[in-house]
Description:
With 457 residues, this protein is an alpha/beta fold. It has 16 helices and 19 strands. The protein has helices at 23-28, 32-40, 68-73, 77-83, 100-110, 135-153, 161-175, 186-189, 193-199, 239-242, 250-264, 310-322, 337-343, 355-367, 402-411, 444-456, and strands at residues 13-18, 50-55, 57-64, 88-93, 125-127, 178-183, 207-213, 219-224, 226-230, 270-280, 292-294, 300-302, 328-333, 348-352, 372-375, 392-393, 419-423, 427-428, 438-439. The strands form four sheets. Strands 6, 7, 8, 9, 10, 13, 14, 15 and 17 form a nine-stranded mixed sheet that branches. A five-stranded mixed sheet has the order 2-3-1-4-5, sandwiched between helices. α9 (193-199) packs antiparallel against α12 and α11 (250-264) packs across α16. 50% of the residues are buried.
Amino acid sequence: MTMMFAEASSVALPILLVSPEACEDALADLPKAQAEWAAFHGFKGSLGQTLVLPGDGLAGVLIGTGSASDRARKRFAIGAAIAALPEATYSLEHLPEGQGEEIALGYLLSLYRFDRYRSQTKPKARLVAPEGIDADRLQLIAQSEALTRDLINTPAEEMGPDALEAAVRNLADEFGATVTTVEGEALLDQNFPLIHTVGRAAAKAPRLIEMTWGSEGPTLTLVGKGVCFDTGGLNLKPGASMGIMKKDMGGSANVLGLARMIMASDMAVRLRVLIPAVENNVAGNSFRPGDIFTARNGLTVEINNTDAEGRLVLADALAYASESPPDLLICMATLTGAARVAVGPDIAPFFTDDDALAAALSAASATVADPCWRLPFHEAYEPMIEPGIADLDNAPAGGMAGSITAALFLRRFAPVPRFAHFDIYGWQRTNAPARPKGGVGQGIRALFNALPEVLSE
């Protein structure tokens, strides 16, 4: 999907961004006919308000910026308003300080359409890259976000473990990366028992997908949950909860989007991506509540809910990643409903013991309008994941602190100096500026922005 800026053009129509506070002065500076036109149409500079100005044909466009509070509540609204303009080439004038990249990225992200199954009307407005921004960087970010969205939006019938592997191989071919997989019964032979356990009841074989890229720089390992569909297993989800479970591979989709950003920008890093790809299905050989399994690192895990399967497949992948400890290990997963209760669907909560990493992620989150929030590895809750009969419990009773206990569970498999776990939603429930209903990237733009600083420490 093309998500690009237009070539510079001498016939580009100027866009004048106008705040409510400056609206009266801005209109007074227009030619009289245009000022009267704007007044007649009630232009006040409210967020996303647009007005095409008449002249010899079209003379330009006014777009309202609203207040700072408006923009915080509805990020990307200005870029989305640009994308919705009539077909023409446009250029931005007098960009508000510090807003240029968000506006330009909002325009690019607004060009996204998921048209695999139905033709979609695409925006026809073309925007010349504003001065002072890194256009190439924004374009690669938008293209990578599109990959993440496409992967999540594709139904499980066509995005099972085999198709997810094919998507990884396509990405690797684009950037000269290497891919290996361990599949089916070979998972047992090579000591990935939990990945095999979760995926063994599905028609499409479970697998661990590994991609490597880069030969110099610090080591970075990304682990993404690849549960391509989650029925809940024998602890079967109700139909209403199963409806969007194609998104349960959103962690893998996000790490692949981030990996694409890293490779497309030629970041000096030795990158490794691990995706345990499974379907959690129901059959005669489904794993059961009460079963106990030994993970790759030797810890035993009691199964108290087969619908808490994501942490199981991630456990083996994280243990494997930690056998060659990277400089930074990042895990992303659509893991718990508790995280949504805590921070809602729009914020990507993350866990880390590294204060410098947390500070860098929080700062990047604000800079690139990619909301993230740190939650604690609260040590006092460790006993909640220790059932007594086994080393660990995959689903502690009581329902308290579900996101934290899941993060503590994962940390048992990631004994490395620098580790961060993101418990994301990966789904836009309703249409929003630059974010149509469906799959969405969360946390990956903040990570991409923070990585150079974090990996240099």
